[in-house]
Write a structure and sequence with these properties.
Structural class: mainly beta
Largest sheet: 6 strands, antiparallel
Shape: globular
Number of strands: 6
Helix content: 10-25%
Oligomer: single chain
Strand content: 35-45%
Order of helices and strands: EEEHEEE
């Protein structure tokens, strides 16, 4: 009997959000090579170099063979993010 191989891979995703009028929309997600790269993108938002309404950095386990996704782990949140708006 052949044992199924486990093809789990960690993915780090930087997901920006942009405003279109009064609507907050997801921009194009960026697959990052590592957490540090994703956090550098967050720092660009903080410093005003990258202009988006908000962003999240998510770590997720993916089973490449069957296309199954684990629970996302939110590593960073900045600005306006759906479901996490704060009244400042």
């Amino acid at each position: 009997m052949r044992e199924a191989s486990v093809a789990l891979a960690e993915r780090i995703v930087f997901q920006p959000f942009v405003r279109q009028g009064t609507v907050l929309r997801a921009g194009a997600p960026i697959l990052c090579p590592n957490v540090d790269d994703a956090r550098r993108r967050v720092e660009k938002i903080r410093s005003g170099i990258l202009h988006v309404a908000g962003a999240v950095v998510v770590r997720i386990q993916v089973d490449e063979e069957i296309g199954d996704y684990g629970e996302p782990e939110y590593l960073e949140r900045i600005g306006d993010v759906p479901g996490h708006e704060d009244d400042d």
